[in-house]
């Protein structure tokens, strides 16, 4: 009893201490609030003042908003404010700054400018004004960046300075008379600082209008966290399951069913799939970008096959990078515990119509714990350095070119090379990739009515077991995967009446896969085709109906698979939404699950289990798809400047999950057909393995609730809670199958995330994040040495908590900063998977300089 009490105290000690640290933030003054929130507040306040005729007061607030997060529409509104106030000098200056960005309404604004210039020449009391062009780091940067990637918030270039020699009238000094209506157009009152998301419907929209539950990790969240591993940024979100398996491998799932080599969540980088079709997994360390290259991360919770096809089973994660020319040059280095090293270098530039961005980096990630002690004479290892989990070098280059009013063209390429350690599946637990190369080449054209995208991904790697007993094979292998993917989307927005609008998107895609892998039965090529339609009907400002349908041709299954989705959105007010949706999705078998051909050595010397996808004893057998049906209701409220609320409840019916098959005995007929001993491995087949669909189905009831609040200037606090209840349905299983069933509860019932960010005017930044995950139980396939067989076994994992933190200091006018970043600050040693390495504390010291 006493020991149990001690464990409980230890479990909650870290979250309690972190909660105390969060409360400290509420008492801190002299701070600058969350940039987007503060900019939004200044914008709304300024627009209200201008609407009330208080032009000078409103302009001052709009300038503060622009300094925080520049946006071309704010610049336009500043110019309009000066025009309404009668200050033609400043109106001309700011209209010119706006026009320098080559906006879509450039001709209209030029007409306003021409009229303003005429009026200035007529005002003999005013000096003649030569055209003054503010630096191109103002409106030009903002507008070009907005056009480069639709739906992405503008980067923060500097605000245009007042023109030399110009005198701004005081609030009590009237300027020249206000121009007549012919020189003006409507002021832009839309909330330009509201968050947008492009992943939920393949088009820019507010989270309030998305048919799914969504989350956004902002650039500020990324910077203040101090995190250098991209997937670790996702831990703070409701509904997202994160699992550190090795020092370099982090598995991510949405709404449960995480696993080694997780395959139920589609990961994109700027809309490009980075799904490795051999394994059905995302190997994050093979990406050619670092955290410094990311503008934001969008997460869509719930099935996404209706738009993205087979791999978007339970959700979509879209990593959106900074646009070419949108950020200053810079360098960041970080070193920490056990030799952890991170370095990034980036540069960008722009011309009249051509923008570019280049980045490069290096990472060294040690293992969390060493699996093979020194001095073992009974084993041999795949790599000599048993402390290294990953060592990667990466480079990435992207460019965009404006096509004028027609749209924008973009292209880019990236490469990552290095070594990597991963946790495999089944009895193959610790696998090393002594060399890998991951390459992509991407191009796109985006216009008002059409989006076209194409990319080529190439992944090559050598691999082998990290350790095996003397005399047994390390199963060396070579993998080569080429994927070519293309998609075209036609877009049309129609006004059916004064109150009814229709947003229609029709798309078609083609995906070609070419796989050669030692673990497959042969060289495999697949061609996938798909088509989809997305239709959104808005009935006034209060109701929207969304319907999606996609059809995918899956060559392995030899049939078309359909994925419908429907949603009803009701807006009780302009800044709140009640949402109800129903969707289906599927996951097709991967190359590994379809065409595996691998002899796995058993504890009996010379004996092997033949793990096969194409079964020689049953050639007609094939693994079927995984299926999910999801129903969800949600609520979002963003009325207040001080907090936002997001809550959802869902039910998922999951069936046909693909798992490693149980052993099947080799008969005499099989032995004769196989020809006895395998000459390549010198092993004798005694059993068959492979993959199969589970007979069990799962009913999942869950909910997510989160609040992000800004209680005082400079403080940003978030808290979210996820509950999940998984019920296994065995009604589809035979009595024989039930004998082999091992209960599995790998999805935690409860997860809690809480954190706070602090930004001060003195240059001190800080953040703290607290995570709690309740116990889990895993059914894993292992080798039973006593029975000389491979079978399932249940493993219990205790609850764990993590506290991550960062404290930093900005100087040289925010061009430089230094920080200390801590992961697992209270060193709560734990495993996040039964076979995973023991996670402990890591501390890093980081420095960044922007030039």
What features would you highlight for this structure?
851 residues; 44% strand; disordered N terminus; five-stranded mixed β-sheet; 22-stranded antiparallel barrel; Serine Threonine Protein Phosphatase 5, Tetratricopeptide repeat; Maltoporin, Chain A; globular; alpha+beta; 12 helices
Secondary-structure map:
Elements: H1 2-25, H2 35-51, H3 55-68, H4 72-85, H5 88-99, H6 106-122, H7 139-148, E1 213-218, H8 219-225, E2 240-244, E3 250-254, E4 265-269, E5 272-273, E6 294-301, H9 305-308, E7 315-321, E8 330-336, E9 341-350, E10 354-366, E11 379-381, E12 388-402, E13 408-423, E14 430-446, E15 450-465, E16 467-469, E17 477-495, E18 500-517, E19 524-539, E20 543-554, E21 559-573, E22 576-587, H10 591-595, E23 597-601, E24 607-612, E25 626-637, E26 643-655, E27 658-660, E28 664-665, H11 668-674, E29 684-693, E30 697-709, E31 715-729, H12 735-739, E32 750-759, E33 764-773, E34 776-784, E35 789-797, E36 800-811, E37 816-823, E38 842-850
Parallel strand pairs: 4-7, 24-29
Antiparallel strand pairs: 1-6, 2-3, 4-5, 6-7, 8-9, 8-38, 9-10, 10-12, 11-16, 12-13, 13-14, 14-15, 15-17, 17-18, 18-19, 19-20, 20-21, 21-22, 22-25, 23-24, 25-26, 26-30, 27-29, 28-29, 30-31, 31-32, 32-33, 33-36, 34-35, 36-37, 37-38
Helix pairs in contact: 2-3, 3-4, 4-5, 5-6
Notes on the protein architecture:
By secondary structure, the chain is of the alpha+beta class. The protein folds into three domains: 35-158, Tetratricopeptide repeat domain (Serine Threonine Protein Phosphatase 5, Tetratricopeptide repeat, Alpha Horseshoe), CATH 1.25.40.10; 207-589 and 624-657 and 694-850, TonB-dependent receptor, beta-barrel domain (Maltoporin, Chain A, Beta Barrel), CATH 2.40.170.20; 590-622 and 658-692, no CATH class. 16% of the residues lie in helices and 44% in strands. It contains twelve helices and 38 strands. The protein has a 22-stranded antiparallel β-barrel. It has a five-stranded mixed sheet with strand order 1-6-7-4-5. Strand 2 and strand 3 form a beta hairpin. Helix 3 packs antiparallel against helix 4 and helix 4 (72-85) runs antiparallel to helix 5 (88-99). The protein is globular and about 105 Å long. The model is unreliable at 1-9, 12-33 and 127-184 (pLDDT under 50).
